[in-house]
Amino acid sequence: MEKAWWKEGVVYQVYPRSFCDSNGDGIGDIRGITSKLGYLRELGIDVIWLSPVYASPNYDNGYDISDYRAIMPEFGTMEDFDDLLAQAHSLGIKILMDLVANHTSMLHPWFVQSRSSADNPYRNYYIWADEPNDWEAVFGGSAWEYDKRTGQYYLHLFTKEQPDLNWENPEVRREIYEMMRWWLAKGIDGFRLDAINMISKPPGFPSGKPVAGTPYTEIWEVAMHGPNIHTYMQEMHREVFAGRDIMTVGEMSKTTPEVAVLYCDPARGELNMVFHFEHVLKTDYENELKWCDPCFSLLKFKRILSEWQTALHGRGWNSLYLNNHDQPRSVSRFGNDGTHREKSAKMLATCLHMMQGTPYIYQGEELGMTNIAFETPEEYNDVETRNAYREYTVNRGVSHADMMRYIHKNSRDNARTPMQWSADTHAGFTTGTPWLGVNPNYTQINAAAQVGDPGSVFNHYKELVRLRKTHPVIVYGDYRLLPEHDPNVFAYIRRYEGESLLVLCNFGAEQQHLDILDVQEWQGAELLITNCADGGSLNELTPYAAHVYLLRG
Ligand code: TEU
Ligand code: CA
């Protein structure tokens, strides 16, 4: 298997709005990020994925870009960005830009031109039609918006403030590639490509599955991986990526391992890896519906992650994540954010970081930050949450109490509350009023309390990051799931050049006895890392225990 820095490193995702505020306006900013590079260096991460920092009216917090070559004034200036990049590089940390190119903001000059008249040269930069079809937008309502100036509808797969670009138009592609090269010329180290599997639209806009209680149909089965997607990805590779030592990861909902290989098989010249959604959509949602009472199945979780491990081995590369700015906090979701918070956070991290692929840590995950439960819908900022509250309580007959319970579990704002730096006011995130409420548990859960504590969640993550750099079996080893039928224990073996790694994780609050192993074989193995103060055991796992054993050849 070809070696690469992006296979060996660990990525840390920064959501700038919530990371660190340097000037007291309550909004995280670029200077704030720069001021925390020492912290990231201490954690040992190699790459920062920066969620969008471009100019944006923030209908979707930066995922609606109005100028690809300018920094959002609330976040600072281009000088601040250049300084962040230079300082990160001087510490050996790379920077990945979040590229949102399926759509722009409605305030992007291209769209302002496009909507101004039907014969404007920018008209074909977007997708216009005389009649809408029945697609439902990701954040609710029709995916088409009527624009009375020209009497046509434009397509928006997300909010109406995020019109979809028309990738069929070669001018659009040329402009996007040129802009990407402009960022690379600055010295950035790669891209995370937002919703990139949606850029090629199916001809005729065929209907999807009906969405219950609405006149709309789903886009998920019909609008992903359109007919020209691989042509565009290969073109982007030729025009932008080829010959550069950069990292690329495409965000792709509705992607199976077989489809993912088409994007990340190096021989095809497309992307390095993809973010799939299977383990976050199919293990605790009811029928993949986000607004529900979650019911987690470890059996499904193991089956899905194991399938990805096996299917991509030697053919592509996995990205490993449990958290991002769109997902609830993993410790609240898959672990236990009550009495077992620290132990289960370490267990989840161990389980993920010992797999093959590039691990992603989302800000605050390394502290075991938890979900938030705001009392009222008004305290939520996220456009998806706000729209869903309205849609479900007004049109779909869901009660306020039920909907709030679903929101507490699954709102994207669970991930977006300010980073908990210290026990000071507003968690040390800002001296002003934070744009989104701070989780009140910051007095217990914060970086200041954890960095110097060898038993902290932070130091467990730090050790996982370090081990990846010292043990090639973690990066390059193959993968075998131990008997699949255990509903509480996730156990697997990795092997590489005579070394074997045994990973044992208890996902439950009960003690588990294991007899799946040839204990004799592992008797002399070294305990590489554990979340149990009193050491590991090969056949007894205390609640949420995680042990990793290494056997040298
Ligand atoms: O998300 C794309 C995506 O597929 C979303 O449907 C995602 O599944 C959803 O946010 C889950 O609730 C990307 C970004 O990550 C997201 O923050 C943006 O809102 C979206 O694109 C539009 O740019
Ligand atoms: Ca600020």
Descriptive report:
This protein is of the alpha/beta class. Helices cover 30% and strands 16% of the residues. The strands form five sheets. The protein has an eight-stranded parallel beta sheet with strand order 11-10-9-5-2-1-13-12. A five-stranded antiparallel beta sheet has the order 14-15-16-20-18. The chain starts with a helix and ends with a strand. The relative contact order is 0.10. The mean pLDDT is 97. 1-O-alpha-D-glucopyranosyl-D-fructose (TEU) is lined by residues 60, 63, 100, 138, 158, 194-195, 251, 253, 325-326, 384, 412.
How are the elements arranged and paired?
Layout: H1 5-8, E1 11-14, H2 30-35, H3 37-43, E2 47-50, E3 54-55, E4 67-71, H4 78-90, E5 94-100, H5 109-114, E6 128-129, E7 144-147, E8 152-155, H6 170-186, E9 190-194, H7 229-241, E10 247-251, H8 257-264, E11 273-275, H9 278-281, H10 298-312, E12 319-320, H11 330-333, H12 341-353, E13 358-362, H13 383-395, H14 400-410, H15 413-416, H16 447-451, H17 457-470, H18 472-476, E14 478-481, E15 489-496, E16 499-506, E17 512-513, H19 519-522, E18 526-530, E19 540-541, E20 546-551
Parallel strand pairs: 1-2, 1-13, 2-5, 5-9, 9-10, 10-11, 12-13
Antiparallel strand pairs: 3-4, 6-8, 7-8, 14-15, 15-16, 16-20, 17-19, 18-20
Helix pairs in contact: 6-7, 8-10, 12-17, 13-14
Calcium ion (CA) is lined by residues 21-23, 25, 27, 29.
